[in-house]
Amino acid sequence: MPELPEVAAHAERLSAGFAGTPLARFEPMHPAVLKTFDPRPAAAASKALKEVGHRGKYLLLRFGEGDGGHDTSDLTFVVHLMQAGRLRIDTKKTSKPRGGMARWTFAEGPALLLTEAGTERRAGVWLLAGDPGEVEPLLRLGPDAHTIGRDELAHRLTAASERVHGFLRDQSHLAGIGRLLANEILHSARISPFANTSRLDSYAVDRLHAAITTSIARGLAAEREREDMGRSQDRPSDVHHRVGEPCPACGDTVRSVEYRRYRVAYCPTCQTGGKVLADNTTSRFLK
Ligand SMILES: [Zn+2]
Asked: Per CATH, which fold does 4-134 belong to?
């Protein structure tokens, strides 16, 4: 799933390419894609795209009159790509594009096409008036991960009292971190993925805060080099894509614990005092 660096870099790309262009129409191509009824998408027609921003893993396409800052008459399309959705520049504008979920057609130039690979159809679009941060789906998001202060992070960690890997992926605690970044951040911070958030000492919180910042900055720098949103395999990784390979920091073998929907990848020497964690299908072969 695209995480904060991929979504933020994509928002910058789309802003550079489309800002200032008036919308001709928004066209849902799948019955479940549009999650809101009011306002109607026609209300956004003829308004110009002011900017494409992001909040956590959501893209925000803000349309309004005039240019410049936020206005109460602005309408914002909030787009969640989920696992397999992509928001692509559409020059062909064919009537039934493969995987097509929704399309924004502009008064001139290419369109923007939301596609989703596979059969799950979980990508979604919300059209919101006013401040989109005040309503679902953005209402319950924690602060964007790269903006959180050290002390607020410490407060949230203590209040949560859960495994730190799950904490980082929970969008109500911090917005924007997914499976790859959670693994990379904890490796960079030298913290066990299974450590309890309420038991991290102040040095560990310092390291975790620094690792969140540097891991997101590293991902963002790599993604800004690209012309389109990359795949997971394209993203910088010291552990997530290196299970069974030597840890770049210490040379120990990177291990994993596999779950149905995600994988915890870690380095025993860097993160767990050398301990190889149980329930680890990979470690059984590598021991
Ligand atoms: Zn290591």
From this structure: N-terminal domain of MutM-like DNA repair proteins (3.20.190)
